[in-house]
């Protein structure tokens, strides 16, 4: 593949932006391809190469790159009416009503401009509501580029910042736990539950190779937080309106958080974020409450129009059946291929998310294993080998994934997220033939 134009663009970019990119995950080696345009389930780079796209903007593009006519006309009409006002507009009420109708735990919602802003606001809200300072997050969880959650440290102990530029005083208020470890959570809450403002977690560790919860784990978190007067915050920035369709992951898993953060899909490809939850909690935000939260662009009419029309389209059409059906097909195809070529590797993902984790060990006998990706089923022969938390994923062949496998897929025209950790997404624009082609590429690259 010729990538001369991308190479030249990267050369220029390196002189004027740090690492040549505006978000570090995009700085793939030796240099990223620059996208000229999207086309359905494909992206086309600056040199005219076509790639089947499973990055999907890292999550927002539920429908792929071609917006349906209804979304396009609504956007054009909003553009014609001006980009934003600094006064409320009807679309803010409409999208809020749509979300509260479909996500039962959300009675009220505040729109912001990114997932990071949503989680930062949710943490401040939980602290304001409870009058406590400590928060708990999962090791390997991701809640955006914000002070309180960019932390690392041993389970149940005080953390340290995982980025320079963050005062250690911030990290001291954050405690981490290993995902799926109910005992560690129970111990922590018994010891210092009355200091904890909230426990924030993704329902699936979507930013750490999509580790799913074991049976009963999310329920345990629900019970512990309730018992100790802490808030349970689900960060559904990735899973919201992706896993479990319109009811989101909380509906699929049947666990009701107090507060939920959204972004990605609810902006239809435009910048957005939101914090939703019980009315008595969300009303702690200014102007009704004392938790200050504000933004010039918050509730931006273009983002909200794109999100609302995309979600309306998904509600009226077979979007979730289509993407989840293809997800099932892709994950079972991958499971079969791995049985043959790399039986130690693990397929993960649910609905329209998927990933292959390059785990180093697997069962001798694969008979009766989960057919379309790990479900943390204790009866599956792979159960003891399926990653349960960050430490398990870190033991995988992450270098092989990134240095050998990913480039081999790109060479075959399949664009996956560039490391072992980020999830991959199927869109409404993908077809059965795309899935076949992708399986062939995996066969070749593994
Ligand atoms: C993407 C993501 C974020 C950060 O959202 P941004 O819009 O990139 O700031 C936070 N939490 C989760 C679970 C995410 O997947």
CATH topology of the largest domain: Aspartate Aminotransferase, domain 2
Low-confidence stretches: none
Query: How far do the termini sit from each other?
Result: 20 Å
Bound molecules: pyridoxal-5'-phosphate
Q: Which homologous superfamily in CATH is the superfamily of the largest domain?
A: Type I PLP-dependent aspartate aminotransferase-like (Major domain)
SSE order in H/E notation?
A: HEEEHHEHEEEHEHEHEHEEHHHEEHHEEH
Family: Belongs to the class-III pyridoxal-phosphate-dependent aminotransferase family. HemL subfamily.
Subcellular location: Cytoplasm
Catalytic activity: (S)-4-amino-5-oxopentanoate = 5-aminolevulinate
GO biological process, one term: protoporphyrinogen IX biosynthetic process
Concise synopsis of the structure shown:
This protein is an alpha/beta fold and 446 residues long. It has 14 helices and 16 strands. The longest helix is centred in the C-terminal third of the chain and has 23 residues, at 319-341.
